[in-house]
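User: I'm preparing a small set of examples for a lab meeting where we compare how different chains pack in three dimensions. I only have the primary sequence for this one, and I'd like the structure in token form so I can line it up with the others. Please keep the answer compact; I'll paste it straight into my notes.
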Amino acid sequence: MLMASNVTDRTKPKPATASGKPNRISVSSKSAERRRHLARAAYQALAEKGFEGLRMREIARRAGINHATLHYYFAGKEQLIDSVVDHIVQDLSIGRNPRVEDAALEPRQRLKAHFNALVQQMRDSPEMFTVLAEIHARSMRDRPIRSIFVKNDRNWTKFLTGILQAGVQKKEFDANLVPEVAAEAIISLVRGLTVTCAGRAELMQRPLDQLLTWIEGRAS
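Assistant: Understood. Below is the structure token output for the 220-residue chain.
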């Protein structure tokens, strides 16, 4: 737990090396870890209370720092939410596992592994999808937050499109498949399933299996 202080990091003296020069790597590493800590605090607040609980003073309290220090790292809620999404994608590795990352696997195996990882995470960490649903709902009427989702979806679309393109080239997937459009359809379906199947992760499996069958060009 980080301790509260009346002095922000902006005014704290920088650690120095033996030469007397600031140790920039150490400062940068500490700053990055502080930002991750704050992102985790915001993530927990969203999971427990939704946007009603996402108040800057509350996040500072959870993180064990003062309000001014929080604003040094995040000027407002939009930047904080952006860091929460990064936390889900990078730290929690949503939809990822070693098989998904293994480029040596055939495209069908990688896509299946991606679907399986999502179902397993829905089972193990349902709060992750609660947080994403909260942010997505807010993005429908909040343009800055919508841009955060657009950025994340662009990366997800690129990831899926690469797998789908490889699958078409290797004749594992339907030759008439348009990878970019199929990627967008997958994202839409998965996002909907995480809401309709909340608390019942096992119900996601059959729709995702059916989707894979359609992508392969099989009738059933």
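A couple of notes for your slides: Residues 25-79 form a domain with the Arc Repressor Mutant, subunit A fold (CATH 1.10.10.60). The longest helix spans residues 143-169.

User: Perfect, thanks.
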